[in-house]
Amino acid sequence: MKKGWCFILMLLLAGSLSAQDCAGYYYLLNNAQVEMTMYDGSNAPVGKTIYKVNNVHKEATGTTSNFTATVYDKTENMITTSQGTFKCSGDGIALDMKVGMPSFSQLKDLKMEAKTTNAFLNYPANMQVGQDLKGGTFEMAGNMGGMEIGIAYTVNNRKVVGKEKVTTPAGTWNCYKINYNLSFKMQMMGNTVPIDLTATEWFAPGFGMVKTVSYKEGKEAGSTMITSFKK
Fold first, then answer.
1. pLDDT tens-digit profile of 52-74?
2. Are residues 114 and 138 in contact, defined by beta-carbon separation less than 8 angstroms?
């Protein structure tokens, strides 16, 4: 059970800017493929998410793309696939929150529908150290065998706390360091199962999210980082 919760925590993070140029973001490169590896609190790999970008197009407010996020466990078995949206404009970028939603292989017959629409996390073009960033909540509801199930995923208290250079197997980037709180709640049969974490994200302007680390009660619970990038 403990290992199962660790994997859920990784999924929560797989899936959280000073330049206004949209061209460099990996979510806006047609056919780009990003591998984000997930690790447990002991830094052992527990799975990965593969993002594949498609349908990059111009809109009145900027550039938008669609992408597919496919989650695999550590034995390369596919867990789930979801669709997401990425937006970039002169004001900054916005990343679809539902990509960060965890998926449960044991609930594969669960039919879910989004209750929250247009749920995005924003990264402003004028990002500065010390700046507070807007959070967000994404909710889903579904039914499995007549049993109602609800899921809520919330990111809040986002704050830019510094700048750091981050190196991963995929490259090196100058990043903004962003701290935030992460909350996941699952309601089933009248009971609520909560997970509350603090987290840090390293975000590279003109590229995208590079790395995340989550903490539970002050101890590292897991992390993600880009381990491969193809365009």
1. 998 899 988 889 999 888 888 88
2. yes
Q: How far is CA 204 from the centre of its chain?
A: 14
pLDDT in tens, 9-33: 555 554 433 334 677 889 888 889 9
Residue 28 contacts by C-beta under 8 Å, 6 or more apart in sequence?
Answer: 22, 53, 56, 63, 65, 86, 88
The residue ranges of DSSP E strands in the chain, in sequence order, are 33-40, 45-59, 62-73, 78-89, 92-96, 111-114, 120-124, 132-133, 136-144, 147-168, 171-188, 191-204, 208-216, 219-230
Q: What is the DSSP string of 182-210?
A: EEEEEEETTEEEEEEEEEEEEEETTTEEE
Instruction: State how far the Cα of 105 lies from the Cα of 77, in Å rounded to an integer.
Output: 11
pTM of the predicted structure, to 2 decimals: 0.81
